[in-house]
Design a protein that fits this description.
404 residues, alpha/beta, Rossmann fold, 7-stranded mixed β-sheet, 3-stranded mixed β-sheet, 13 helices, 15 strands, globular, disordered N terminus
């Protein structure tokens, strides 16, 4: 049985003659759709516990967006019911949570689930039940190759290539090293980094993996000091970046540092303090201080619903991924098609050059689920502020078009 056939027999059969244009000819919709009450139930896994509990900020921001959408009637009378459970940032638990969301809560889709390795681990089960994954907050290559998955985040390989391009062409560095988390996040970054290095006719002075729970980077930094690295590009968590900066400070190792967008955030400043000053970050999101209506709405809503959460690119990430689901579901409502998971996938593949939360130029098509397609460079400044130091431009073509 193929996906189309599976979805045709797995609908809830909940029919309302008051909404005939929303109902398939055979009178079926997918689980999670309550036509009578105009409610769609969606869900996500999130690390409330585990090594990165502050990642809950992502889910708080996503939840704030869904409340904002409900209050401002962004879905023409339809309301969102958002259900989340803790997975401890453990991929096996992410799968268990997703099963619970599907089998007990009857979710229509996953929306803004948190974690790269975690989202990748869920893909086989999502394919088994035909569950769309909209805006998984991760950047693994595997997320771009599945029809059910619509990542707003870039592949971390593209971001690593953008960092490398900036290091060589703007910072005029000659000796660049990579520190990469030994999971799908870091491996994706390493693939893009290696491709871009080759495209530029260069070689890294070091490429060193580390474990996600690593708190002591002294051995890694000694190796980087021994090869006189001028720029260190780190792909890992906020905590990893802070630990790396502390180790460099202890050793007296002076280099420029670069990191992915989600570490350009007040949460990282709380961990690293002034050591974060002058660090560079590639970012597919606009500056959080922007006057753009979507970014201003993020600041206002998070301040309203989670006043203790910092306003930063980390939260804007969660907000924007939630916005992607609302954008897609609105297109599904406007299409007049039955409210099925498969039709959600179909309309998502028609999204073109859209503004989605803090991201611009977001597009999906059949066979191409690369959502964000450009990045700028942000730099941390004194006092935990962040500024755009290089405007947005397309990802290096050699990496963006590669089969990562």
């Amino acid at each position: 049985m193929n996906r189309r056939e599976f979805l045709a027999v797995s609908g809830t059969g909940a029919v309302s003659l008051a909404f005939p244009r929303l109902v398939a000819a055979q009178g079926q919709v997918s689980p999670g759709i309550d036509i009578a009450n105009k409610t769609v139930t969606i869900g996500a896994f999130t690390p409330v516990t585990g090594p990165v509990p502050f990642y809950a900020i992502l889910t708080h921001a996503a939840e704030s967006y869904f409340k904002y959408a409900n209050e401002n009637d962004l879905l023409d009378g339809w309301k969102i019911n958002y259900v989340t459970y803790d997975d401890g940032y453990e991929p096996a638990r992410s799968v268990a949570v997703t099963r619970r969301l599907v089998e007990e809560d009857k979710v229509f889709a996953l929306a803004a689930p948190v974690g790269t390795a975690q989202s990748v681990a869920v893909i086989p089960y999502a394919k088994e039940v035909g569950l769309p994954m909209i805006g998984p907050i991760g950047g693994a290559t595997a997320l771009f190759s599945e029809r059910l998955v619509f990542p707003l985040l870039p592949d971390y390989g593209w971001s690593a290539a953008s960092n490398l391009d900036y290091a060589f062409n703007d910072l005029k560095a000659e000796r660049v090293a990579l520190l990469w988390e030994n999971d799908e996040l870091g491996r994706s970054a390493k693939r893009g980094f290696d491709i871009q290095m080759e495209a530029m006719g260069r070689e890294p002075v070091e490429s060193i993996p580390f474990e996600v729970r690593n708190t002591d980077f002294t051995p890694h930094l000694r190796r980087l000091a021994n090869v006189d690295a001028e720029v260190v590009i780190l792909f890992g968590s906020n905590a990893n970046l802070a630990a790396g900066l502390r180790a460099a400070d202890r050793l007296g190792f002076d280099a420029k540092w670069m990191a992915p967008f989600f570490t350009a955030d007040p949460t990282t400043y709380k961990l690293a303090g002034p050591l974060l000053d002058d660090v560079y970050f590639s970012s597919w999101l606009g500056p959080v201080t922007s006057d753009a209506p979507e970014i201003a709405a993020y600041r206002d809503s998070v301040s309203k619903y989670y006043p203790n959460d910092p306003i930063g690119v980390f939260g804007l990430n969660g907000w924007s991924n939630a916005s992607l689901f609302v954008t897609g579901f609105k297109k599904l409502l406007d299409s007049g098609l039955p409210l099925t998971r498969e039709n959600l996938v179909d309309v998502m593949e028609t999204l073109n050059d859209a503004t989605v939360g803090g991201a611009q130029g977001v597009s999906f098509s059949a066979g191409d689920h690369r959502g964000a397609r450009q990045e700028g460079i942000i730099q941390a400044t004194e006092g935990g502020e962040f500024k755009l130091v290089r405007d947005f431009k397309p990802y290096p073509a050699k990496v963006f078009d590669a089969d990562l």
